[in-house]
């Protein structure tokens, strides 16, 4: 399916919008957006079917102001806009997906101080699972459904099976449209290593 260039606005609140892709300009209603406007709003570059999404650019700007107003010596602040909090809850979106190193507990926004982690020396299960998520996102974006049954203990073969579908750079681009494909910089490094060398896939731990 080709990428739509126009989108009817089904409904819109301050922080959420539901759009329906329209093939031709003459078929649009009175309230519509162009693809360029959709991308400028931070809504993602690919749509199929009527879908509701967060207006992330607007939310990011609001949260940035909140962070700048955290009192000296404090690590958190109340998010006073209840509509924003409800939008995050409804879409199950973590604020860290919008602004890194932050977290939300109820209506309170925290600066999340990163704890120094032990240097990673090998591919982990999270890296393997993350790469599998990227392949699933690629299939979803391209509206492809594949039913695969494989031995869950052979993670190396799972990577080899999906790898021919897309380059790693393509997978990274697709990830921008899915909040559940949000990873830290070092995780991207290890997922790319696994993509390039499936034999690095972690072995399944056996029970003693």
How many domain regions?
A: 3
In total, how many beta strands?
A: 7
- Please give the order of strands in the largest beta sheet: 3-1-2-4
Head-to-tail CA distance between termini: 50 Å
Q: What is the residue-mean pLDDT, rounded to a whole number?
A: 84
What is the string of helix and strand elements?
EEEHEHEHEEHHHH
Beta-strand proportion: 15-25%
The number of helices is 7
Parts with pLDDT < 50 across at least 5 consecutive residues: none
Shape: flat
What is the C-alpha radius of gyration, as a whole number of Å? 20 Å
In percent, how helical is the residue content? 25-40%
Largest sheet: 4 strands, antiparallel
Protein structure class? alpha+beta
How does this structure look, described?
The protein folds into three domains: about 5-55, no CATH class; about 55-110, no CATH class; about 125-200, no CATH class. About 35% of the residues lie in helices and about 15% in strands. It is built from seven helices and seven strands; from the N terminus they run βββαβαβαββαααα. It has a four-stranded antiparallel beta sheet.
């Amino acid at each position: 399916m080709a990428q739509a260039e126009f989108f009817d606005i089904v409904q819109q609140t301050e922080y959420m919008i539901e759009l329906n892709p329209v093939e031709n300009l003459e078929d649009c209603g009175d309230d519509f957006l162009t693809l360029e406007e959709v991308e400028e709003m931070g809504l993602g570059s690919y749509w199929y079917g009527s879908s509701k999404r967060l207006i992330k650019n607007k939310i990011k700007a609001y949260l940035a102001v909140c962070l700048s107003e955290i009192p000296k010596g404090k690590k958190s602040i109340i998010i006073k806009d209840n509509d924003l909090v409800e939008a995050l809850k409804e879409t199950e979106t973590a604020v860290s997906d919008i602004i890194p190193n932050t977290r939300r507990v109820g209506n309170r926004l925290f600066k999340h101080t990163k704890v120094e982690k032990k240097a990673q020396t090998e591919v982990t299960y999270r890296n393997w699972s993350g790469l599998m998520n990227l392949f699933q996102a690629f299939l979803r974006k391209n509206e492809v459904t594949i039913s695969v049954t494989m031995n869950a203990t052979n993670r190396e073969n799972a990577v080899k099976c999906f790898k021919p579908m897309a380059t790693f750079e393509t997978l990274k681009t697709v990830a921008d449209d899915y909040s559940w494909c949000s990873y830290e910089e070092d995780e991207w490094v290890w997922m790319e290593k696994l993509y390039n060398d499936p034999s690095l896939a972690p072995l399944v731990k056996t029970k003693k």
